[in-house]
Amino acid sequence: MTPQPAPAPLLIACALGIEHLALRSGNRGGAGGPVTVLRTGMGPKAAERSVTRVLADPVLGDAAVLATGFCAGLAPGMHPGDLVVAEETREPRGTVGCVGTELLVKELVRAVPGRTVHTGPLTGSDHVVRGPERAELLATGAIAVDMESAATLLSAVRVSARPVAAVRVVVDAPEHELVRIGTLRGGISAFRVLRSVLPAFFEWHRSLLLPRR
């Protein structure tokens, strides 16, 4: 019998230690192939360096890449603990389309019942966004912003063509800015949600391994 090729790996990239802790302490069972959780460090430059370096390893050369962690919501009515599934990521150097958005939404609703899942463009920034700048970014059509997702996905597809996606948990929103009372409660809520999302990521990854008809 002809040996079956090894399943393509999954690289899950986040920036912060607290995000990495949430993912590492979540449910790790059920992955469709090897999984690497990478802490890139904060900011687009750190994300670009880390992702480019890791994907240079032949073991991860054809890995699917999923950027995750916390984000700032831009739209009124968003709350800490809401989820954002990017249809595309944007930054000044380019826009990257995401794969399997509908499947991710379906699986996140199953993995984290009761949480609102938003879909739309996710924009990148090199700094924490507050106040009037939120409205400026919302006017571009983006629904959320973070500092690493866009750089992560752009770096990944520049190394080679591959499936990419971005899922973020809102920790900061127009009516719930980090500088306000209630930040700790919002952060705990977002942390708990991030701990619960891995099964959805694994289902997304498995769907990429299925033969296409």
Describe the structure.
The structure is a single chain. The chain is an alpha/beta fold. It contains 7 helices and 8 strands; from the N terminus they run βαβαβββαβαβαβαα. The protein has a 5-stranded mixed β-barrel, surrounded by 4 helices. β4 (83-91) and β5 form a beta hairpin. α1 crosses α6 (183-195), α2 packs parallel to α5 and α3 (101-111) packs antiparallel against α7 (198-209).
Distance linking N and C termini: 23 Å
Strand order of the largest sheet: 3-7-6-4-8
Helix percent reads 25-40%
Largest sheet: 5 strands, mixed, barrel
Uncertain stretches: 179-183
* Average residue pLDDT: 87
Q: In angstroms, what is the radius of gyration?
A: 16 Å
Taken as a percent bin, the fraction of beta residues is 15-25%
Name the descriptors:
213 residues; alpha/beta; five-stranded mixed β-barrel; 25% strand; globular
